[in-house]
């Protein structure tokens, strides 16, 4: 899942994980909170470190997928290059790009951590959506407008896509 901070990536990932668990599926959610505090705690937020962050996440995800774990990754991953690199590492047959699309204003309104306010004050530099660009995915398999859709409906869309992907694999 890719999208701006506050777009709803983690909220959707947790709800999707619960739905898959209820179906008896083994899952793992990877997001900035559990990756940046551990395996990637030595990386900053400059372009080179962001690329390395996503590369490492893709490598870890590949290991999970090879063990049969449905791995739900939710990261800003702001460039098409980063997302394409992740697809290549994980393998296109096991990769489902989900664009969690919400307008910047909605993301700022949801900002429980106050990151957008800090970025607008200049306390955080290179913040995606404010000082650093976000490239919308060119051809995501799923695009969810979380400014208007509700979580249960979005989870249903994702479950159908996952089911379809597993049948074609």
Write the layout of secondary structure elements.
Layout: H1 9-22, E1 27-31, H2 32-35, H3 47-66, E2 70-74, H4 80-90, E3 98-101, H5 104-110, H6 115-121, E4 142-145, H7 151-168
Parallel strand pairs: 1-2, 3-4
Helix pairs in contact: 1-7, 3-4
- Cα(first) to Cα(last) distance is 20 Å
Please give the order of strands in the largest beta sheet.
1-2
Got a strand count?
A: 4
What would you call the shape? globular
Our count of helices gives: 7
Characterize the biggest β-sheet.
2 strands, parallel
Helix content: 40-55%
Average pLDDT confidence is: 92
* SS-based class: mainly alpha
| Regions with little confidence, pLDDT below 50 for 5+ residues | none
Question: TL;DR of this structure?
Answer:
This protein is mainly α and 169 residues long. The protein is globular, with a radius of gyration of 15 Å. It is built from seven helices and four strands, in the order αβααβαβααβα.
Description:
The chain has 169 residues and is mainly α. Helices cover 48% and strands 11% of the residues. It has helices spanning 9-22, 32-35, 47-66, 80-90, 104-110, 115-121, 151-168; strands spanning 27-31, 70-74, 98-101, 142-145. Helix 1 crosses helix 7 and helix 3 runs parallel beside helix 4 (80-90).
């Amino acid at each position: 899942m890719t999208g701006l901070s506050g777009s709803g990536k983690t909220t959707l990932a947790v709800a999707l994980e619960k739905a898959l668990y209820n179906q008896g599926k083994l899952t793992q959610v990877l997001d900035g909170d559990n990756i940046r505090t551990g395996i990637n705690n030595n990386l900053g937020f400059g372009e080179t470190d962001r690329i390395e962050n996503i590369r490492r996440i893709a490598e870890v995800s590949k290991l999970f997928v090879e063990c049969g774990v449905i791995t739900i990754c939710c990261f800003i991953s702001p460039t098409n290059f980063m997302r394409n690199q992740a697809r290549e590492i994980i393998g296109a047959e096991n990769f489902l790009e989900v664009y969690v699309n919400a307008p910047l204003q909605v993301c700022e309104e949801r900002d429980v951590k106050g990151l957008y306010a800090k970025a607008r004050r200049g306390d955080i530099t290179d913040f995606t959506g404010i000082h650093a660009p976000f490239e919308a995915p060119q051809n995501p398999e799923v695009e969810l407008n979380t400014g208007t859709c509700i979580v249960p409906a979005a989870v249903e869309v994702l479950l159908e896509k996952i089911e379809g992907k597993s049948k074609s694999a």
